[in-house]
Write a structure and sequence with these properties.
heterotrimer; A mainly alpha (305); B alpha+beta (556); C mainly alpha (311); A: mainly alpha; 67% helix; C: 311 residues; mainly alpha; MetI-like fold; 13 helices; BP-dependent_transpt_permease (chain A); transmembrane helix (chain A); MetI-like (chain A); OppC_N (chain A)
Chain lengths: 305, 556, 311
């Protein structure tokens, strides 16, 4: 390596002015997250799409005079028109009304599944990691075995034994769904609970619930939030898959999954019956995914994992 | 997803369609044309295509190709082409001699003596002997073999006792007197026995091979010997199955097709797409199904073939629970639906509205039925009467009504339409309850339902098929809890009635009693719908929906 | 190492036993039995059938018998398909699903890694967005819609591929694409994020400073390290993909293993349900083990048997 000559450097002297106000107003962690998230264009597209979807789920059914469940056999399979904006289905029901009614059901299933997963997952993973040792081993083995039983068998048996209702559907979503959350919470708590600041808190005589509330949960919040945003689309996905198998909700309730699987054979003849519910499923899953990705990047700019 | 067709008997005198007319489309409503020349005659006039091969779909893997074990229509379809019984159902729908060249019946109609045709051979060259039938039938009856369809042989003397372990298999009235003579003794005179001998449970098996190897029927190969117009050359399980014309078949000169390729595609959209793409020569019933959404387009193109068959689609009422324990309420609900609208818009298969129990293929006057379709005035009258009897003031006081059905696209649509009709026409609140097939059937048999859908298809060409299941309240397939002494008496008397006309009259009276009590709401009489390569002729679809390819050919 | 593998094998056996037990009893909770039919069989014949298949035995005898049989790799006869045993079903169905699955995995890896690398190298530029939109779109479409639309457009409208069935290479293209779409998206995203992570490491900066070409850096340094998370994802992925997808197999009429499972549940074909479950679990458990071992071989920093999180 050649020596660097001294004349490539220049002494600038001490610059006093302005050193105090270089820094911007200090941001909290979450403010920082929001700022970084807002810079992610794809994620913002997701947010906008989702806001539109939620708005339409709330008000869409009110925008049309048609009822989502009333048959009109004389007007079956009508193409989209000024009267029926999204066309009609094989029983002459207005697709516009049904799609937004379906949005309510599908989003509800997704949200309910995510919240239940969160609740069970945090409890299970937290306790396992906190207690450690045999308890941890036993709880996680149980989760592994449950994970190993074919999901479809579990879902079908549930549907069969308890009947095909919205409640059973949500149970079927969450029966193995919480496992992922539990694993993530456990991993987080395990890695956090031996950090110096937790140790310090403990030394100072803090109780475990306090440490949990004050240190562990807030610090594990990021991965938990990301997992939640990804649980919602996977629940909507699973619902549509179960509908395809004929294990979906009982009509005339509309969900995107039942509508899409009803519309599948109509693709060749009445494509709008598949198009609208399918596009809604895709847009929703797309939005949640890019939001999840954006959150991940925003929460952990270095790891990006 | 698939409708369960469990045909017990592949016979039918009525409405056998010979697909030879209607080469250029239009709605083929399946009206039989008796003046049509027989396909043999037609075949000699028309030019045959060079390639006599077809591809069709059987939707699923045939559960077994051992005639003794078979109990489903998919297996039956293959067995009907590869095996041949003592008789076979001819193109006119009547049984004709097949492996038997001569049949003698004793004066009391209980002893049948069959003479085996000279030249009847197995595909490996072995002659077909009377012992092959004796072996096959006794194998089915042996309780150790647990054959589902053993009861198909119960018409034979001693068969039921032997199968239930109360008698010996050796004592059953089946006897190979010598290699060419088979003597069968029946328990009672059975007028349709020669139709039964065409059914697959009555097929022979090559006793030399079957006795030596119990797994002979598990795969194609030299162990799988058959005696019919075709023999199986390839069986890729769950994928496809190929049968080819048999050189050892006694009537091979009348067999034109050289090869039939059966694929096992169980998605009906895929099936129709393959047909549209020229990958199949036939799509739809009896072995597949056309997607309902395609029906309108197929009708518009004029390519849809339709044929009525002996079957009725019902909603059963549970007469043990309110409100359907009330006859007038049952009637009100039955009168309040618009069957024609349902058929035109939902099933779309040119089915006939059913206002009777027995299909018009058996009782022609049932095309009209006992009451009018969509009779809202009568419905309201009955509803008012029923409510009064129940001591209720208003419809809203009726207990909640639930329609149960098994998960299936078609059943679900029908249930939604009827739900809508009942709530609009009667003002009742109706909910739907769907369950997976095995769960549903158990619920129905256990009486755990209010209104439940159930189809019923004729086993053989006799009205008794549609009546006897309601003979006893706790009979295996009644499900409604309904019983009527007069009805029961008529059925029992009809069994011993020798005069056919009188017997028919008794059965009609029984049907009238049944319709008056209305434990079941008939909705429509089944049809079969399919599309096919229009050059394919001579495929015979019987009135029970059984396919025979023996006489089929492709026109040049 | 040997001790580690031995312990893991013991875990696999234990898990298998638990899964078999749970499935065995869950299955019997469902109403109905293999001989439920529309036209009820006479009770005597039904009893005879149950006895023939040993279903009249008390549950513990059936359970014990079953465990013994599984140990001998004998899954028993199918109740529905009387000409085949469950071993036959697996032996004919699995190779088909395997071929299709391997094709899909190959496709997913190739496309996924390329998309991921492009996205990472062009971080926050339009190439990144395009690649990620494609990737997210891949997970956004339910497989039954994807399969039906592919079939409609490429086979029916344009007639490039056959509509369905199994046979030539052309038959495998559409189902392989449909099957690969979700894993492709996952792999692309994984590759992208771990590439970004690796790219920020000092040794990459060093390599850049040394003046190595970007291509060389990508191939030699970044990709190799960035693929580690992809490898760990390959375990459960390949187990899922090679055991077949019910939806894809049904829509494309493919005689694979995936279709047997759902159909057998509907038929209450107990032995097939059990056999396919056991087979599936074995593949899943072993592929996870295999990946863990592989992982240790690729990345010297990871020591097997210590510090493993979860399972």
């Amino acid at each position: 390596m050649e020596p660097i000559s001294k004349d490539r450097f220049k002494l600038v002297g001490l610059q006093q002015q302005g050193t105090d106000n270089v820094a911007k107003a200090s941001l909290t962690f979450w403010q920082d997250v929001v700022r970084r998230f807002a810079k992610n264009k794809l994620a913002m597209v997701g947010v906008v799409l989702l806001v539109i979807l939620v708005f339409m789920a709330a008000f869409g059914p009110l925008m049309t005079e048609f009822d989502y469940r009333s048959n009109d056999l004389g007007n079956k399979n009508q193409a989209p028109s000024a009267e029926h904006w999204f066309g009609t289905d094989d029983l002459g029901r207005d697709m516009f009304a049904r799609v937004w009614e379906g949005a309510r059901i599908s989003l509800f299933i997704g949200l309910a599944a995510a919240l239940i997963d969160l609740f069970i997952g945090v409890l299970w993973g937290g306790i396992a990691a906190y207690k450690g040792g045999r308890v941890d081993e036993g709880m996680m083995r149980f989760a592994d075995v449950l994970y190993g039983i074919p999901y479809l068998l579990l879902a079908i048996i549930l549907m069969v034994v308890f009947g095909q209702s919205l409640g059973t559907m949500i149970v079927a979503m969450t029966i193995t769904g919480w496992i992922n959350m539990a694993r993530i919470v456990r991993g987080q708590v395990l890695s956090l609970k031996n950090r110096e600041y937790v140790l310090a808190a403990r030394t100072l005589g803090a109780t475990m619930p306090w440490i949990m509330r004050k240190h562990l949960i807030p610090n594990a919040m990021g991965p938990i939030l990301i997992t939640m945003t990804l649980t919602i689309p996977s629940a909507i996905f699973t619902e549509s898959f179960l509908s395809y198998l004929g294990l979906g909700l009982t009509p005339p309730i509309a969900s995107w999954g039942t509508m899409a699987s009803d519309g599948l054979p109509a693709l060749k003849y009445y494509p709008w019956r598949l198009f609208f519910p399918a596009i809604m499923i895709c847009v929703t899953i797309f939005s949640f995914n890019v939001i999840g990705d954006g959150l991940r990047d925003a929460l952990d700019p270095k790891m990006r994992k | 997803m698939k409708k369960k067709y469990s045909f017990l008997l592949s016979t039918l005198l009525v409405m056998t369609l010979i697909i030879s007319a209607c080469g250029n489309a239009g709605k083929n409503t399946g009206t039989n044309n008796p003046g049509e020349a027989s396909p043999e005659a037609t075949a000699s006039e028309v030019k045959l295509a060079d390639k006599q091969e077809i591809s069709v779909n059987i939707a699923s893997e045939p559960p077994t190709l051992n005639p003794g074990k078979a109990s489903d229509s998919t297996s039956g379809t293959i067995l009907r082409q590869t095996f041949e019984g003592l008789t076979r159902i001819g193109q006119d729908g009547h049984p004709e001699n097949a492996v038997a060249s001569k049949v003698e019946v004793s004066p009391d109609q209980t002893v049948y003596t069959f003479t085996i045709r000279d030249g009847a051979k197995w595909s490996n060259g072995d002659p077909v002997i009377a012992g092959d039938f004796e072996y096959a039938w006794k194998w089915v009856l042996d309780p150790a073999n647990a054959a589902d369809y053993a009861y198909q042989l119960y018409y034979i003397k001693g068969a039921e006792a032997a199968n239930l372990g109360k008698g010996k298999v050796e004592d059953v009235g089946i006897k190979a007197v010598n290699d060419t003579t088979l003597e069968v003794t029946l328990a009672n005179p059975t007028s349709f026995f020669l139709e039964l001998t065409a059914f697959y449970t009555y097929l022979p098996v090559n006793s030399k091979i079957a006795a030596a190897n119990k797994d002979w029927a598990n795969d194609a190969g030299d162990q799988y010997t058959t005696n019919g117009p075709f023999h199986m050359t390839e069986w890729k399980h769950s994928d496809n199955l190929i049968i080819e014309k048999s050189d050892t078949y006694w009537d091979k000169d009348n067999v034109k097709l050289t090869k039939i390729n059966f694929s096992m595609i169980n998605d009906f959209n895929t099936e129709l797409s393959m047909f549209d793409n020229g990958e199949l020569d036939w799509a739809g019933q009896p072995n597949g199904q056309l997607p309902v959404d395609a029906m309108q387009a197929l009708k518009d193109q004029g390519t849809l073939h339709t044929q009525p068959i002996a079957g009725v689609y019902n909603y059963k009422f549970n007469t043990k629970v309110a409100p359907f324990d009330n006859k007038n309420i049952r009637k009100a609900f039955t009168y309040a639906i618009n069957r024609q609208e349902l058929i035109d818009n939902i099933t779309q298969g040119e089915q006939l509205p059913a206002m009777a129990l027995i299909p018009p293929t058996m009782f022609a006057e049932n095309e009209k039925g006992f009451f009018a379709d969509n009779d809202q005035e009568k419905a309201k009258e009955f509803l008012a009467k029923g409510l009064e009897e129940m001591g209720l003031k208003d419809v809203s006081e009726l207990p909640p009504v639930t329609i149960s059905y098994n998960t299936n696209e078609a059943h679900q649509k029908i249930a939604q339409a009827i739900q809508d009709m009942w709530s609009k026409n009667l003002g009742v609140e109706v909910t739907l309850d769907n369950a997976e097939w095995a769960v549903y059937i158990e619920k129905l048999h256990a009486g755990d339902y209010q209104v439940g859908r159930m189809g019923w298809l004729g086993d053989f060409n006799d009205p008794i098929n549609f009546l006897e299941l309601y003979r006893d309240a706790n009979g295996g397939n009644n499900d409604t809890g309904w019983e009527n002494a007069d009805f029961k008496k008529l059925l029992n008397d009809s069994a011993s009635e020798a005069d056919a006309a009188k017997r028919t009259e008794m059965l009609k009276q029984a049907e009238a009693i049944f319709i008056d009590d209305m434990p079941v709401m008939p909705i429509y009489f089944y049809t079969m719908n399919w599309v096919q390569n229009e050059k394919l002729k001579g495929v015979v679809v019987s009135g029970l929906g059984d396919l025979t390819y023996k006489w089929a050919y492709i026109e040049a | 190492m040997v001790k580690y593998i031995g312990r893991r094998l013991l875990y696999i056996l234990l898990s298998l036993w638990l899964i078999i037990t749970a499935t065995f009893f869950l299955m019997r909770l469902a109403p109905g039995n293999p001989f439920t039919s529309e036209k009820q069989l006479p009770p005597e014949i039904k009893a005879n059938l149950l006895a023939h298949y040993g279903l009249d035995q008390p549950w513990y005898a059936q359970y014990g018998d079953y465990l013994l049989k599984v140990l001998q790799w004998d899954f028993g006869p199918s109740f529905k398909y009387k000409s085949q045993t469950v071993n036959d079903l697996i032996n004919t169905g699995f190779p088909v699903s395997l071929v299709l699955g391997l094709e899909a995995i190959f496709l997913a890896l190739a496309v996924g890694v390329i998309l991921g690398v492009i996205a990472a190298l062009k971080h926050n530029r339009w190439q990144d967005y395009t690649a990620m939109i494609i990737a997210v779109a891949g997970i956004s479409v339910p497989s039954f819609i994807m399969a039906t639309v592919l079939q409609y457009v490429l086979a029916i409208k344009f007639g490039i591929f056959p509509v369905a069935r199994w046979g030539t290479f052309m038959h495998t293209v559409l189902p392989a694409i449909a099957l690969a779409s979700t894993p492709t998206a996952f792999i692309a995203r994984l590759t992208r994020s771990s590439m970004l992570e690796v790219l920020s490491n000092d040794y990459i900066k060093t390599a850049k400073a040394k003046g190595l070409s970007e291509f060389m850096i990508t191939i030699k340094h970044t990709l190799r390290n960035a693929l580690l998370p992809v490898v760990s994802y390959m375990g459960p992925l390949s187990a899922g993909v090679i055991t077949g997808s019910f939806v894809i197999e049904r829509i494309f009429g493919i005689p694979g293993l995936g279709s047997h499972f759902v159909v057998s549940i509907g038929n209450r074909d107990y032995t097939v349900i059990m056999g396919v479950t056991v087979f599936y679990s074995i593949i899943l458990l072993f592929s996870v083990l295999l990946v863990d071992i592989l992982y240790g071989l690729i990345d010297p920093r990871i020591k097997l048997g210590r510090g493993k999180k979860g399972a």
